[in-house]
Amino acid sequence: MTIPAPAGLSGRDLTLGYGGDPVLAGVGVRLPAGRVTVLIGPNGSGKSTLLRGLSRLLPLRTGEVEVGDAPLRALSPRQLARRLAVLTQGRPAMSGLTVREVAELGRHPHRGRWRRADPAGAAAVDRALELTGLTHLAAQDVGALSGGQLQRAWLASCLAQDTAVLLLDEPTTYLDLRHQVELLDLLRDLAEVHGVTVGVVLHDLNQAAAIADRVVLLREGRVVAEGTPAEVFDAALLSEVYEIGVDVIVDPTTAVPTVLPRPRRRRERHTTDKEANECAAAS
Fold this sequence. Notes:
By secondary structure, the protein is α/β, with parallel strands linked by helices. The protein contains eleven helices and twelve strands. The protein has helices at about 45-55, 75-85, 100-105, 110, 120-130, 145-160, 175-195, 205-210, 230, 235-240, 275-280, and strands at about 10-15, 25-30, 35-40, 60-65, 70, 85, 165-170, 195-200, 215-220, 220-225, 245-250, 255-260.
């Protein structure tokens, strides 16, 4: 992969919404260059909204987002697409295109007008298909793919884009266990080996703990904690934010925390005298 020079992504004083009251107000966040940052929090906490704001898919009401030292508002769509790729939820099936053609969509910002030559394009697409395990399906119509295969095809498009920053919203959706693990390993590899800045929304806290260099915990449109998994994965804090009791166990070898929800006690069922007599009569 040919990745541009490492660049972090940061936002300050961000206010975002879809009309009416904002979902997030006055939020700041930082995604360090060449690291994996995971956004976590309960449903409705603003994770996906924040990711959309950071990628300019959702206009800012207030605040500023910068990639490297460049404000996003100052970049043309093509300039932005050369620096930042985003995998959103609910990508279309695009029936009629092959898997390779979907991956090739990621090369659009590198072609310029009139689809000029893209010398690095074929190799970038080949590499993206290899990384996502789709080489053998390159000629397959995407309309015939499973949900998980389609998700990987769109991820291949993002990887073929060759950007310094990659943002993903719930990328493990529709993937079976094997492909979830492979995808998470790929994100770590992109950061550690290629210096890509990765920002990802995840619901699974243990997946977040396993891959994150940095975690941002949101609740009701506010950042309530940020830092390493060891710093953020506090049992009392997570219990309060998720409104369910959890325990956190730290692996002594890897120092990776594991979150275990505490099972709620079953309510004791008190048998009435009438129910007891009916049971006795039936036996």
